[in-house]
Amino acid sequence: MTATIPRTLNVKEAIENRRSIRKYAQEPMNQDDLHEILRLASLAPSAWNAQTWRFAVVQDAAIKQQLQDAAYGQGQVTNAPAVIVVYSDMEDTLATVEETAHPGMGEAGREGQRKTFDGAFGGQDVAQRGQWGLSQANIAFAFVMIAARGLGYDTVPMLGFQPDKVKEILGLPEHVQFAGLLPVGKRAEDGFPHHRHSVERITKFY
Ligand SMILES: Cc1cc2nc3c(=O)[nH]c(=O)nc-3n(C[C@H](O)[C@H](O)[C@H](O)COP(=O)(O)O)c2cc1C
């Protein structure tokens, strides 16, 4: 039987309790909770506060089916009530970079932000700076998983899909890069216990 988990978990509980879940209760997502998960994820940090991540939330059954087809038929896509697609849009980030300057810094901050980004990325091609954008979006991807678990929901991160097909289904521009698909809902299975390297195996202390 699936363990009962309190509705709001602290960070330690959310991290320890998160595991990939591929079977979900067949009930729609609470829309306020969905919004709160995205709001919490949007608090993720990013270099120069670039916030390159963008979310596409799919709850429509027909579109979920299309996503599942693009994900080699992986059943968790349609089994979950919602799929959060986390991607980075570095071109949108660059075009609107003034928005990410802290308002407290005024016009000088907005100009500084523009200068910083033009200087750092103006000489790079779309693919190169897109890769940088993705490295930021991956941080938000992890935040979505932990925020969801903290609010009593479960997820499974997915990269097993054809990116071009997903772009076509969602009408996303060619240049975007995916952190992943994230089916989300209430668990209807326990998932697998964690199997991880020990801290000693992966850490050098100096
Ligand atoms: C970036 C990423 C991509 C993944 N892609 C898939 C996927 O396409 N399908 C799937 O069933 N699981 C996928 N997984 C889930 C992993 O198999 C799982 O996270 C890992 O085995 C550890 O298990 P846990 O999440 O239960 O702790 C992916 C995980 C990550 C982080």
Automatic annotation (TrEMBL):
Pfam family, one: Nitroreductase
Domain Nitroreductase: 15-186
Keywords: Oxidoreductase
Family affiliation: Belongs to the nitroreductase family.
UniProt name for this protein: NADH dehydrogenase
Gene (name only): nox
